[in-house]
Design goal:
229 residues; alpha+beta; Jelly Rolls; eight-stranded mixed sheet; four-stranded antiparallel sheet; 3 helices; binds 2-oxoglutaric acid; binds fe (ii) ion; L-ascorbic acid binding
Amino acid sequence: MPPQPGHLIDAAPITTATSLDNLSLLESISNNLREHGYSVHLNALPHLLSHCLLNQAIATPSKEFRPASIGRRSKLSLQTDIRNDQISWINDSTVAGIAWIAWIAELQSYLNAHLFLGLFSFESHYAHYGPGCFYGRHQDAFHGDANRVLSLIVYLNPEWQAGDAGELVLYTGTSPEERLVIHPQFGTLVMFLSEDIEHEVLVTNKDRRSIAGWFHLNQSHGGLIDPPS
Ligand SMILES: O=C(O)CCC(=O)C(=O)O
Ligand SMILES: [Fe+2]
């Protein structure tokens, strides 16, 4: 049964970042993560970069998109009752990919210098949720797993309307009422601690494009080199 919209409450700090320069944006993300464990900024990405990524997401042939699975490594499985989006991993083989990875590197080094999270590597994919698609309530990492530390999502949907649905819901507290509803609007950046914040993507009525990514710790040990995807 796909998640239903229900009664949603807008709450908590969301920053409209148009007036922030890049350094102020990094500072604001870092402070939000330290104080709340999550951070949401509208218009966070440089406009040119968002456009470049959207064009690349659209230009990527559909055969390079795969149904998304859940779980990790040998435990990966397709479960379309939990999620039914399509994904394509991002690498440095395109100009958009190179620009994206460079932007992320700056973010990573700022957060490592200010939050001491020990972020070591990053992986990300384009995601496409067609009409009717969703991703049920989940966590991106589990306590003790210590693989994914920080989750990041950027939306690539110009002119998203409220009726288009497809909101991201972050469960920010212990009660179900404590939740933050985020419209997948072009340029919005969402980050949260992967082990701490449960979240879900409500059924979308329209094609919904985004990038989802995760910072990892260095998990190399016993001759096994990190990061495997
Ligand atoms: O697209 C979103 O809003 C969230 C996606 C997500 O939770 C995930 O890919 O793990
Ligand atoms: Fe997630």
